[in-house]
Amino acid sequence: MIIKPGFVAKETNGVETVCATGKAADKFDGYIPLSGHAKLLWEALSKGATKDELVSLMLATYDIERESAEIDVKAFLNLLAEADIIDEEESDIPDEDGQD
What we know:
100 residues; alpha+beta; Arc Repressor Mutant, subunit A; 3-stranded antiparallel β-sheet; two-stranded antiparallel ribbon; 4 helices
């Protein structure tokens, strides 16, 4: 997964958000708030972390089960993909119905 050019995290009014700059702002004029684990995942993703590495980071940081970490990572990546913020490879974390 790669964060597309023009998307950055920045703090506005005390809230960390992902927003678009430059040409990316022509297609995305909103923002995504980053709090708690979303901020942790964004920072790792911005350094090139894979899905498996994001899940491992969640497990190392929070006292949660692997399944919960996988669900949280998948939800965050889906949010970014739906907003066209990342280029995402085929998911290796199954959906809740067991499908990729």
